[in-house]
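Lab notebook, design round three. We kept the backbone fixed and only want residue identities now. Task for the bench partner: fill in a sequence for the structure below.
Input structure tokens:
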């Protein structure tokens, strides 16, 4: 286990080595804390990618929570988070206060200050269910990029729409950061690792397994076309009492094309994405999917 330095202010970040003094590119892993093996995988990927500093941010961002969402009960486990960071190879953990990140103040779910709009892609899927969410995500990530000034930034594919939007922001705003996606980490039974999993009772966790089963069912039927893949996934989801489905979507890799509405496309690699509520907990998951025909079921 390596030593890890905790810093909490912009001034302290300025003391981080840069350029040749850093020994390699600066890598950033943004998180909201409550770290688990999925986050550890991101930190390890960053560590493997550079001999320079690996910085992990731990900040529960109020701007990406709408009123009535779980901001107040979102788990905060800093001591355990520091241990995860050290064990996975991080050098620095940035733990700013809300005042440090938003010195002019912030209102939950909205702000009058300068912020980053997610554009049309931010209004579908998660954006349709949580209209202010991606504005909050992109704004805080842009702030972190400006504060840490990383060369590389690592994000999990579990939050796939978030990953695509951050890639788009970094590219279109010329932020000079290479955004790296890391494959979703799953428990042995298939459940995607998430900080919100700890909200689930044992019974609810069993119900939640339907999400990964549905995605796997869609992939197994992909050779028979989009309608068949969707039917297979919906059969799993609708057959699970206690699961309240928000959406099931089959999209192109960049999420701009709804594959169910494009029956004449040639062989296509895309994503199947799902969101559902189990008890009081909202969960999301996704998997890559490849269609080799648009034939019937």
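Proposed sequence:
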């Amino acid at each position: 286990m390596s030593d890890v330095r905790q810093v909490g202010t912009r001034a302290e970040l300025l003391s981080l080595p840069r350029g040749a003094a850093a020994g390699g590119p600066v890598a950033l892993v943004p998180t909201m804390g409550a770290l688990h093996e999925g986050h550890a995988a991101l930190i390890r990927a960053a560590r493997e990618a550079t001999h320079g500093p690996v910085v992990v941010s731990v900040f529960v961002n109020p701007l990406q929570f709408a009123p009535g969402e779980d901001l107040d009960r979102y788990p905060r486990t800093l001591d355990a988070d520091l241990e995860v960071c050290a064990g996975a190879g991080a050098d620095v953990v940035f733990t700013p206060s809300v005042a440090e990140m938003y010195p002019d103040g912030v209102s939950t779910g909205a702000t009058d200050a300068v912020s980053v709009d997610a554009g049309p892609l931010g209004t579908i899927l998660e954006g349709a269910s949580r209209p202010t969410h991606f504005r909050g995500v992109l704004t805080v990530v842009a702030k972190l990029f400006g504060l840490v000034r990383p060369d590389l930034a690592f994000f999990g594919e579990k939050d796939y729409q978030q990953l695509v939007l951050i890639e788009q922001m970094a590219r279109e705003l010329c932020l000079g950061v290479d955004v790296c996606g890391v494959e979703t980490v799953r428990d042995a039974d298939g459940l995607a690792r998430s900080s919100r999993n700890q909200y689930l009772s044992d019974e609810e966790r069993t119900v939640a397994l339907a999400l990964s089963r549905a995605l796997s069912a869609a992939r197994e039927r992909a050779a028979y076309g989009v309608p068949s893949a969707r039917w297979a996934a919906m059969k799993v989801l609708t057959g699970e009492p206690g699961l309240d489905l928000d959406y099931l979507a089959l999209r192109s890799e960049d999420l701009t094309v709804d594959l169910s509405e494009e029956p004449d496309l040639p062989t296509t690699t895309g994503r199947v994405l799902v969101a559902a509520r189990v008890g009081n907990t909202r969960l999301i998951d996704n998997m890559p999917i490849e269609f080799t025909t648009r034939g019937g079921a």
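Keep this in mind before ordering anything: Residues 78 and 139 are 23 Å apart (CA to CA).
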